[in-house]
Amino acid sequence: MALLEGIKVVDFSKWLPGQYCGMLLGDYGADVIKIEDLQGDATRRFWPEKTKGMSYWHLMLNRNKRGVALNLKKDGGRDLLLKLLQEADVFLEGFRPGYLARYGLDYASVHKINPRLVYCSITGFGQESHKPAHDLNVVGLAGLNNLDDVGRACVSEVQVSAVGSGLNALSAISMALLARERTGKGQWLDVNLYATALSMQVTGISALWGCRETGEKPFGRIAHYYNIYRTADGRYLTVGTIEPKFWQRFCDLIECPELEKRQYDFAHEEELQQ
């Protein structure tokens, strides 16, 4: 039996965080109904397209989902969505705070017709901010888009805060469904990309604060024993040798036994990385 078999999800998200969460819920066996407006989600038209109006991005993120198109601004579309929510276990939405309240689809209103519903909102900065945001904006504010310790910026191929928020939403929904088994009541979950991005820096932030207390100079994640090196044949070698036994084994493999005792020789960090 699939873990979420029998759970009905209404996925009214338009972008990666919510769509990714809905995809995972479907992967775990939930019956996911994907809601789009009559023009379809913008992700349908992302490049590359398999056919016109059907991108590979859209096909991947919305696998395992059934689809419904409706016009929320018309009474018929709104009524159809409310009917679906009456029978749903989970409602997943990714609009800016306050938008769905215009149509009587905020948590307080929907809770009245379905007290058992788990209502999950995914936003850029939480319910107190109406600012729009995509992953790149968020990771920039959270300090996640640096390429290395000298501060060169880059755009990651992985949308860190977006995918991370999808995973956070999946975890929160799973726990809320478990809580509902005990209480019989649903609840409102508020997930935002900025908080997700900050939480992912738990080791970096703790190290930074710790160095401020001790007076030591923070070096981030990169050190001579934890770095990426270009090899003579033009390829790349990842060296993640935190434990002394692995650092010593690495020194043996590269035939540099003189480096075995210098794993924590940070005073000569630049020399050791050559």
- State the end-to-end distance: 54 Å
> What is the typical, i.e. mean, pLDDT?
91
Strand content: 15-25%
* Helical run tally: 10
Summarize the main sheet.
6 strands, parallel
**Strand segment count:** 10
Largest beta sheet: what is the strand line-up?
5-2-1-6-7-8
Compressed to H and E, one letter per element, the order equals: EHEEEHEHEHEHHEHHEEHH
Structural class: alpha/beta
What gyration radius follows from the Cα positions, in whole Å?
Answer: 24 Å
Low-confidence stretches: none
Query: What shape does the CA trace take?
Result: elongated
Considering DSSP H and I runs of 4 or more, what fraction of the residues is helical?
25-40%
Structure commentary:
With 274 residues, this protein is of the alpha/beta class. The chain has ten helices and ten strands. It has helices at 16-27, 56-61, 75-86, 107-113, 135-142, 160-183, 193-199, 202-214, 244-253, 269-272, and strands spanning 8-12, 31-36, 49-51, 54-55, 65-69, 90-93, 118-123, 188-192, 226-230, 236-240. Helix 1 crosses helix 6 (160-183), helix 5 crosses helix 7 and helix 6 crosses helix 7 (193-199). The mean pLDDT is 91.
Gist of the model:
With 274 residues, the protein is α/β, with parallel strands linked by helices. The chain is 38% helix and 17% strand.
Features:
274 residues; alpha/beta; two-stranded antiparallel ribbon
Present the secondary structure layout:
Layout: E1 8-12, H1 16-27, E2 31-36, E3 49-51, E4 54-55, H2 56-61, E5 65-69, H3 75-86, E6 90-93, H4 107-113, E7 118-123, H5 135-142, H6 160-183, E8 188-192, H7 193-199, H8 202-214, E9 226-230, E10 236-240, H9 244-253, H10 269-272
